[in-house]
Each structure stands twice: as structure tokens, then as C-alpha cells.
Amino acid sequence: MSGDPLIALRPWQAPEVTSWGRLPMCAVDRREGALSLDGRWRFQLLPSPEAEPGPAWSWSSVPGAWTTQDTTDLPQYTNVRMPWAEFPPDSPDANPTGVYEREVDIPADWAGRRIVLHVGAAESVLLVHVDGRPVGLSKDSHLAAEFDLSGTVRPGEPATVRLTVVKWSDASHIEDQDQWWHGGITRSVLLYATDPLHLADVTVRGRCDGSLRVDCRVRSAAGALPEGWYVTGRLDGQELVQDAEFDRLNAEDERVSDFLGEARLRATVRDVRAWTAETPELYGLTVRLHRADGSVADTSTHRVGFREVEIRGRDLLLNGERVYLRGVNRHDFHPLTGRTVSYDDMRADLVTLKRFGFNALRTAHYPNDPTLYDLADELGFYVVDEANIESHDHAHEIADDPRYASAFVDRVSRMVLRDKNHPSVIIWSLGNESDYGANHDAAAGWVRRHDPTRPVQYEGAAKLDWAATDDASDIACPMYAPIEDCVAHALSGEQTRPLIQCEYSHAMGNSNGTLADHWAAIESTPGLQGGFIWEFWDHGILQRVSDGRPAGRAGAGLYGNGVAAPGLRWAYGGDFGEAVHDGAFIADGVVFPDRTPKPVMYEHREIAAPVRLSVEGEGTRRVLRVHNRQHFRDLSWLAAEWEFAAADGGSWTVPAVLPDVPPGGAAVIDRPDVPGGAGETWLTLRVTTAADEPWAPRGTEVCGPQVRWYETEAGEPPAGDGTAAGVTSAAGVEEDADDGAARDSRDRLVPGAGGPGSGARPETDADGLLLHPLLTAPPALCLWRAPTDNDVLGGMAGRWRAWDLDRAERETVSVERTGARVLVRSRWATAVGPVEHEQAFTALRDGRVCVEETAVLPEELSDVARVGTVFETVAGLDRCAWYGQGPWESYPDRAAGAPVGHYSATVDELFTPYLRPQESGGRHGVRHFSLTGDGGHGLAVRLDGPRQVSVTRYRAEDLTAAAHHDELVPRPGCVVHIDAAHRGVGTASCGPDTSPSYLVPTGTHRWSWTLRTL
């Protein structure tokens, strides 16, 4: 490469240079009819951009990152810090540089036409040569670059195209996003041809009143425009008309150019079907550029959505309606190909999100693949389109650095020019976590001038003063703000703009606690309109365990249900041998790397449900009311049925008819005939799609709102209660006809009240530990859980370890045997004082055992992980059936999406395979459960009230010791936890911890349960 002017320029260390020879960005889509250059390219990976290619070539798939294709340069993950020490704008001397090369046969019928090379994305500096001649360069790893090859190639002859990609550059300092670092050509490469007279850009603006404006720019490869050209347009059969007033004003203002043509077309659509995320109505628009003789020189097609976005006071309005943004942050990601994603991948992403109640995307933190926006238009999503700017490690230095000013404006403006015609895009974002400076103001000024139809947001501008009115953000868009602070701001009287969190509810591991509380506050507080969960993906790269390298495309099909096949694992930071990394912080999504939904997805689905159910009145006057929580759509697209679950084991369904309810309205729904039963009865309205939707076939479950219809006497802890309530006194005791245990009038076990069916004394060892033929480890007190990511990064796990909760030692204080009862008092030593524990074992008839427990936590043990019982069973008990919340995992502060019912699953299915093993598999609000093997033999446990229960194959220490799922070795039996109190999971890995109401208090905890052999 010696003597090459592109290399001599050293553009990888010149932030002022954003491109050379690159064509302007536009919204004319040339993908259809283009010549695809995707496939196998000759490839060399050089140690630096100044190194000369050698004679030996390998092959590389385009598009695709070379870091996932068996090269010596592997993926690296950092969150904030740069992966090397050089300060901006410098990059390291050791700078992997990929050289891609292939021959292209230029079609002979392209003679006389304008020929353009399109490179979809290259990370991070692209240098283009054709037949050894320099053509141009480009920066921005997430936007396409186009180059005019008309004077370089000859139609009918082959040409050698060389694309050189430099991995590290001055641009890397403003691409410091929370994701894997890759290198390569990550989106498609195309070659297309146009007439010399061509549409240079088309801008489409459709309003919800049916008015349409189309602005066209026209250029000629010859420079000067020919005489007599004109533009026509047709919208689904309706002709557009030339805007004569526009032409007149341009002539009067001398805005008529010899080389840049401008034309404006207009139309008004009667009875227009407006575009919203709920009703994504699209019209087909065709724009034609004609020569003077009427022949067509160029054509551009677009899908038009008629909608308006505005901010009025502190409300963001779509078509005049205040809408909630139930959003998620999304990266372009695939576990095999890194940042290269297909149409099918992206459609599956959006279909998954749609089915779980999401209606908004933030393209974190760069413009996503263009196909994503087509799908968002079609399926219905509100998009915050974000520029490829994040200078996290050197944020404040770069924000005001004039050397980077052109890069800021270039990246923001090119994003807007590319995506401006998508109705799904409702907000422009200037980037992420780059402090705030003059460079942001410059970019915001360009956007506001070019596109006044959409608001601009940037968290860095708004973070210091949510009520400011003179910065670069039209929206207060904080990240991870406590919901209490958001509510206080909305109620302060000082709010000046919408408050929509750009990131909240960090989804790392077992997380997303208090999501329902968060949305309860949003929906009850004017001025709050939602936010974007961080994030969609767990970015685990499929890795071969044998050699530590990415599996690449060869790993297709070698994973499922969130788990990699044997010999493979999901890799996170540090797994590729990199010294500088940020560990499992990359695994923070609501889906696993294979797109398997995590339990939080079901929580979100119910929180975002279009239909809600409430009970009003008392006694025989009670009515059920259906609420339509949508903004624009009625309920006619939905079907429903009633499902009943009774405490006595009954479960049945009956048809339901949804009433006509307008958006935002409510109506009484016919009350089903619910037979009474022993204990409580729960009604669930199973709501499904009534017909095929673009994102779901007929019968797909949309939501399942639930209410308790019958209950025992008032006062029983609700299913979602996470407090450590103790059992009541013996008032109202009666003998249970089924298990012989003494129960109060609310069907809860009463301590110390063995009934007339009491049997022989339970068997215990010398230390008072229960002996039972189905238990391999006796019931013991447990205060520890395998730390979640939130526990670790939030500091709780360190505190619990300092208290010795993971290794508390038991000392027997006394064992008293009286009749059929054994009372055992013990003391568990911790670093800050003892925990007094009492167990009373009472033999009931047929060998059943009632266990009554009390634990007293000293004040020093405030906020422990749990207070409860752990025991282990013999092998062979492989199926769990329970009555409580389910069927998926739930915890005290993440239980709104787990309805009460009767459920059954294998023990292995109860476990949630978070990328870094941790506490998982819990079920909240469990009333009773059984563990059985072949023939139905096993054990049954009945609890004194709704409790947190988990049944897995792993002890807490097994989970704590493992770094990856493949390191876990299942135990032959079951590890069972019954918790009187369990700490919420919160979101403390990045954001607020759980709410105080979900913490485990000090003092006395009481719980009881019966153990029965089946």
C-alpha cells in the first residue's frame, strides 16, 4: 500500500476527516434490483493499516465480522473504558486491518449509466480501491457509504474491488458503546446503476389529516441538469399534483439551480387511515423522474404512514393523543455473526417484542440495519432513532472538541437523511453517554432546521436539569432515575417537557424487580409517559469450549431454550482471553442470546396488557369491568375465555364475550357463573388474537388479567405480598379432613395444634434434625441465596458474605420430645450475631409431619437475602406440581405477570439458565406443591400461606461457584427452598435497588408447613 494517498492521509487518526469521495446520504432505497456482492471475499488480516498485504489469502464471508470467522482477532467487550490506553484522537499501533478483495463483472447494459458501490457498514474506517485506484473513504460503523464508480469501471468488463477496513481509529472514541468490539464489513455490499439523471433524495411527510407533501431533489451525473425534466407521483392510485406555489416562490427568491433540481408534490387523502403503533396503516407511494420527452429516468418507492408527532406542554402526542412508550433498547446482534443480522432475525426480534406488549424501540446506540425500520413501519413500533455517537470514556473532553464537531454533525445528519421517511421514527436522538457540549448543539441545530416535524432528545443535555428549556433535548430522558424522583418532578409544578426514561429497569440476570410498581406510578402520574428497558438482548456469543473461539455460522441450531449445546457456551467479557473487559455486564437483556424470552417478558406482557380487569362492588352486587388500555384501537381484534382456578384443585374454562369498548374506555363484562369451592377462586380472562395479525397467528395469547373472585375470610396475604407475615393464633382451629393438620378458619396451618389424628413422634437425630426417607438433607434454616448480578454489583452479596450468611454454622441449643411433638431450638452463628431458630415437628396421621418454624434476626442483619427452609430430596422426584403463581419464574417484586393457578413441570424446566448462574427458578405465592416420580410416588408440601418456593437441581453454592451454565452439574435429587420472606431482585446492577417494601425485615419470622409422603 506504499504510495497510496488514502493510507498517506492516515484517516484513522484524523477526526476532522469523516469521508472522502463518499456520496451524500439520501432516502432513496436502491436495494431492489441491485447487484449483490455478498458472499465469499478474499481476505487478509494485517497487523496495522500500513502493513502490506502478502501473497497468501484466506476467505471471509460478507457481510460478517472477521472477529467471528476464525481469525486471530477475537471479540472484546468493554462497557465504558476503551480497550486501549491511547487518548483521543489516537489509536494503537497494533491495529487489526482487514483487506477484502473480489472481482466483479460489471454488466454490459450499464453502459452510459451512473454506477454506484454501496457498502452497508464497516467497522470503523473504510478505504475503497477499484483496480488499484483509490475511490474514497468513510467513517461511521453503522451507516452505509456509497461511492460513484462511473469513471472507474467499464461496463462489460471485470473490476477488482478492494475494501480495506481499519478496526481502531479516532472514530472508535465516539463509538464506545456498551457492546462487543468487532471488526469487518457487517452489512451487505451492493452495486447498482441509475440513469445519469436521477433522484438524489425524496422527503415524504404525511399528516394524520390526510395531507401529503413530497419533496424531491434531482441531480445529473453530467453536472448541469437537462431542460424539461419533471417529477410525478402516485399514492395507491391517487395522482399527486405539482405544488405551483412552491415553484413560484423558488423562482421569486432565485432558488432555482442549474445543477440541483427541486420539486414538490402534494395530495390530500380522504378518510385517511392514520398510522400508529396499534394500527400501522401504510400507503404505497411511487415517485417518478421524467425526461423532457416524458420517459422515466428514475423511480423511487416508499411506504407512507400518515401521522403527526408533537410536544404540547409536557406531553408527547401522536396524532393528538398522549401515548405511553413501552419501549426497549435494541442492538443489532446475533450470537453467531455478531452485528450482522438478517431480515428473518430482525422480524423475529420485533414479532417477539410485539407479542410481549412492547410498542417502542430505541436503536441503541446507533442507527440499526435499514430493514429494521421497514419492519417497524409494518408491524407498528415507535422508534427513537439514535446516532452512532458515544464517547463514554472521554465524554466531556470530546463533547467540546472542535476536531470532532464535523463527526457529530455528519453522523446525526446522515441518520436523519436516511431514516426521515419512516413513520415509525418519532424522535431523533443525538447519541448516548457523551456528556454535553457544543458539538451536540451543532448537531441538534442541523436536525431542527432540516426536520422540524420530530422532537430531538439527548440524555446528556437534559440530565442536569429536567426542567430546562434551552438545551439540545426536547424531552427529559434520564436513565435509571428512581421512580420516586420522576413522580416528584411531575408533581413539582416545574415540569416543562415530557419525561420518558431512555433507559430503566436494567435486565442483567435475574432482575427487573419493581417493574409493575414503576408502571403503576407512570400511569397514575400526568407528565410521565414511559421508558425503554435496558435492553433486549443478552449478548452471549456462542463459543466453543474446546478452543475458546466463536462458533460462528457453524453453530447454527446448536442451542435452544436459552441453553447452548454440550461443548458450547454463551461467552461474555473475558471469555476470549482479553485482559481489559467488563465481564457479564453484556448479558443484560430480556431475552437470552437465542431469543428465548426471560421470565420478565411475561411480567411486561401483563403490565402492558391492552385489556385489564377489575372487580367493583361487594357481595352479590359485585361486577367485573373490562378496561381498554389502548390509545387508538377497540377490542374487536381480540377474543377471550374465562379460566377458573380454585384452591381445592378445580380448574375449568368457559367462553367469554368482550364488550364493545373504545380506546381508553371501560365496560361491564357479563359475569360468569362461578361455582363456589373450598378456599379461594381466581378468575383469569385469557385474551387472544381473534384473527391472524402480522405479528401473531389467530389464538396467540395477548394477556391474562386475573382477579380473585371467591376468597376465605378477609385478611389472607395477597398472592403478590412479599412481606414476612407470621401465622395467626389458634382461634378457629378445625381438623383438616385431608391431611389431619390443624388449620384456622382461613385454611392456614396453626402451630402447636396437633389434631386428634396425631401419630407417632417424628424421627430426628441427636442434633434435632428431621429424618425422613425421602430427604437426603434435613430441613434447615437458610438466609443466603446464590448472588444475582444485582446482588453482586449492588453490594449486597459482599455484605452478606461479610456477615457469613453463606457459611453460617448451626449449634443445637435444645431438643425437647413430648408426645408426638419434637421442639428443636438452635442458634446460627453469623459475623454480626446469632440467629435464633426454632423448629417444632409434629407427627400427623399416615406419617405426615407438620413443621412449625420461627427465626429471629438481630437488628444487625438488616436486609438479608431470604429467611426460610432448605432441604434436599432423594433422586427420582422429577416432576413438580404446584398451586400458586406461575407457570414461569416469579419473585416478590416481579410477580404481576404470574397468575395464580395449578401448574406442573419437570424440575429441570423450573430452572432459569441465566448466563452467569445465580438465584433462579423461584415461584412466588405458592400455597402447596408436590414432587413425584414414576407412578406418582413422592412427597407433598402444604404451606401456611402464599410463600416463595424454589425447586432446582442446584445448591446455592453450586450456582455461586459456576461462571457459566455449562459448568453446572445437576444433583440427582431436588434442592427445595421454602421462604417465609425473600428479598426482591431489584435492578441494582445499574439503577435503583428494589423498594423497601420488598426487603427482608429484622425481627421474628414465623412459617409452617406439612410434609406428606405420596
From TrEMBL:
It comes from the Bacteria. It catalyses: Hydrolysis of terminal non-reducing beta-D-galactose residues in beta-D-galactosides. It is an enzyme of class 3 (hydrolase). The keyword Hydrolase applies. Residues 719-732 have a biased composition (Low complexity). Residues 58-71 have a biased composition (Polar residues). Residues 50-71, 712-766 are annotated as: Disordered. Transmembrane segments: none annotated. Keywords: Glycosidase, Hydrolase. GO terms for molecular function: hydrolase activity. The keyword Metal-binding does not apply. Residues 740-749 have a biased composition (Basic and acidic residues). Its EC number is 3.2.1.23. Residues 758-1012 form the Beta galactosidase small chain/ domain. Belongs to the glycosyl hydrolase 2 family. This is Beta-galactosidase. It comes from Streptomyces bluensis.
